[in-house]
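Exercise 3.2. Students should predict the tertiary structure of the chain below and write it as structure tokens, then compare their answer with the key that follows.

Predict this chain's 3D structure.
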Amino acid sequence: MPTAPAIDLHHISHLYRTHRDDLARVRDRQRDHHTHADPTMTPQLDDIEAEITYLLLRDTTPAHTVEIGTYYGWSTTWILSALRDNGTGHLHSFDIVDHAPHHVPDHLSADRWTFTQGDVRTRTDHLPPRIDYLFIDAAHNGRFARWYTHHLLPTLAPNTPVSVHDVFHQRHALPFTEGAVILKWLANNTTPFFTASAARAPHTHRAIQDLKKELDLHTPVRTGHRNPMIYFRQPTPPRPTTPQDSHQRSHTP
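Answer key:
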């Protein structure tokens, strides 16, 4: 199996260039969607993190994407746009409120979206048998993060892309929050993460802004510049130690 590329600035920059024209069209549509949406529709994702999500989905071409936390469906429309442009894939979304179905355009949802209302922790029977991309933007507390690090992430295949929102509004994640829990889990699993957070990674944030300007993608879709999301790939679990391994180590000179 070929090794998945690391999610880093080099790879993200490559995806911006590869999918520049499609991304430009999606940005225009999203700007129009935002302009004409019901005033109650409050977008959560900033432009760069929404674009990176779109680009990683285009690169991954997932059969099954899971979105935990839709709110008014802004992230949902970005994800569905990527699946539409891929020409394949289904989105399975979960939220305790049902705002998103009232704000996601029919032409995007079509036959590629299933929305389940309720706490995903009690609706796991609605999850697809395999998750090829996991997007999390729900309860930002440590308890919820401990649930998904113990019960959901271990079910993912190695190298599955994962996005977690609202980690780096500041340079460091606050104690006892979702961000603190997921960062500790990543460290314990020696797994790197990528972020374009202006607070955490200002040089990365500036590099992407400069690239967007070069590609004529710099006109804002919406206001907001924090981009606190992190991205990583599900780590490969360590190989279980066997009695033979122990025997070999005990005889290593």
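Discussion points: The chain has nine helices and seven strands. Residues 20-36 form the longest helix (17 residues).
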